[in-house]
Amino acid sequence: MVPREIPLFKKSLLSLIAAFFLIVSTGQQAAARTTVDDENIELLAKTSKAIAEIVKEAMPAVVFVQVEKTVEQRVSPFGQDPFGMFNDPFFQRFFGPQFRQRPRKFKQRGQGSGFIISPDGYILTNNHVVGDADTISVKLADGRKFKAKVIGKDPQSDVAVIKINAKNLPVLPLGNSDNIQVGEWVIAIGNPFGLTQTVTVGVVSAKGRSRLGITDYEDYIQTDAAINPGNSGGPLINIHGEAIGINSAIFSRSGGFMGIGFAIPINMAKAVEKQLIKNGKVIRGWLGVVIQELDEDLAKSFGLSKKEGVLIAEVAENSPAKKAGLKSGDIILKMNGQKVYDIGELRNKIALTPPGTKVTFDILREGKHKSVTVTIEEKPGTVTVAANRHEILKQLGIVVQDLSPDLAQQFGYREGQGVLVAEVEPGSLAASVGIQSGQLIEEVNRVKVHSVKEFLKALSKSKTTKRVLLKIRDGDISRYVALRIQ
Q1: CA-CA distance, 178 to 186, in Å (whole number)?
Q2: Alpha-carbon distances, residue 338 vs 208, 359, 361 (angstroms)
Q3: pLDDT category of residue 30 using cuts at 50, 70 and 90
Q4: Which pLDDT belongs to residue 332?
């Protein structure tokens, strides 16, 4: 059939009706879009105001930390001497003492951030901010300036506590970093490049970042909130206005922000801070085991249906673990009822457990679940011996100790093979050449050493040469490093 043709006037009428409904429909859609847009804008405005209010409350407790240190450098009377030629005894005898290098002192300055944790002036910051500074100045948000003193510092976690003489100060509340979730909003406040009271906003990118090589004890919060040089020591804040971390490090190929920053969890910082205020140092707990990660193949080999817990590879003699009956091949699944996920987490928890504390481990041994209670002891080497007050050791930035039979077994060395590096200060001369805690120093200035006493005797030669030559062993690999001192 041929379709019937609609008369012209009817076509016109239908077109008018269609146009009317189109206009009405378009108007309704536009009105709906306007309503939705208004709601979104209002939501954004509320979010913006909320962040502004959080920052307004927190900022008065964030401080600007400036440090100053006097350093001495030996310089030639004739300008630069990159090869040390003018300090060579033969050269001086041949050409005369006028060519001898002369000491020159100058001021070295640095800056960072911190935040007030008590009304009477205790401030949390980074160890690498205050370091071994001669003077520390703190500038408050209201412009007041104070001299600060170091209450205690812990290079192994990079936490430090300083104090100013003031009262009724604004305080930043401390939150619970265990409760934060990846994706949560966070705010970083600090003084990047000396630009005081700078605020950046981002999210928690990851939790539990360890084995980064920044400090000995790592459990970092990763964030994309911009952190730059000078932010170190400042707070990372949650949406409740609580500090949940101390901004400490960045991953960067340029020296500036690249979207990856790291903060020390505030729960770790609180544990360290309490000991620093009470004792001036941190006394760490010791279990006495060598632990390793489990992969899927290892997990199946030890009777696990999935990858969980950490594997005990070795147990040191006379250690708390040995006394409690833990064995090589045991898998630690829980500590005090909480699941253990990786070796970094377990190591940090043990280290922050006060010596004398009883800890219960749920383990898997030969396919059977068991519960073992261990009394944590003080970590060997925690107490710094008097020898480590030696001036050259301070310059190097290391703490050494005798290699006891237990430590030799724990680290895989022979008793008397050398002296053990117990601590390395971040940013020190030793750290700059890759020396790390747990490594062994076998020779000092080409002399074999078997004890701290022999180490110091061999080190005394460096007072005149201004150079230290060390033979360092790390497992099966040894190497020489040369360091110039003042």
Answers
A1: 14
A2: 15, 11, 9
A3: low
A4: 92
H-helix or E-strand spanning residue 413:
none
Alpha carbon distance 165, 120 (integer Å): 7
Specify whether the CB–CB gap between 470 and 459 falls below 8 A. no
Contacts of 123 (CB under 8 A, 6+ apart): 63, 65, 114, 115, 116, 117, 138, 148, 161, 162, 163, 164
Cα–Cα distance, 67 to 63 (Å, whole number): 13
Numbers of helices and strands, H then E, in the chain: 12, 26
Tokens at 225, concatenated: 């909130």
Closest CA to 456 of 403, 401, 413, 417: 401
Per the annotation, the verdict on 232 as an active-site residue is yes
Q: Among the options 154, 157, 158, 319, which is catalytic?
A: 158
225 near 243, Cβ under 8 Å?
Answer: no
The two structure tokens encoding residue 11: 């076509």
Instruction: Kindly list the structural domains of the chain, giving each domain's residue range(s) and its CATH number in brackets, ordered by start.
Output: 35-282 (2.40.10.120), 285-378 (2.30.42.10), 386-484 (2.30.42.10)
| Residue 404: active-site member | no
Please report the pLDDT score of residue 385 as a whole number. Answer: 39
List, for residues 187-235, the tens digit of each pLDDT value.
Answer: 999 988 878 889 999 999 998 887 676 777 778 999 988 888 888 899 9
Pair 225, 260: CB distance under 8 Å: no
Among candidate residues 113, 157, 205, 232, the one labeled active-site is 232
Q: Quick: pLDDT tens for 354-375.
A: 889 999 999 988 888 999 999 9
Cβ neighbours for 332, distance < 8 A, ≥ 6 positions apart: 291, 309, 310, 311, 312, 340, 346, 361, 362, 363
Q: Which of 149, 69, 66 is nearest to 394 (CA)?
A: 69
> pTM here?
0.64
Considering only CA atoms, which of 68, 79, 76, 138 is closest in space to residue 106?
Answer: 68
Q: How far is CA 354 from the centre of its chain?
A: 21
Q: Which pLDDT score is estimated for 420?
A: 87
Give the separation between CA 333 and CA 275, rounded to whole angstroms: 28
Cα–Cα dist 147/100, whole Å: 39
For this structure, is 450 an active site residue? no
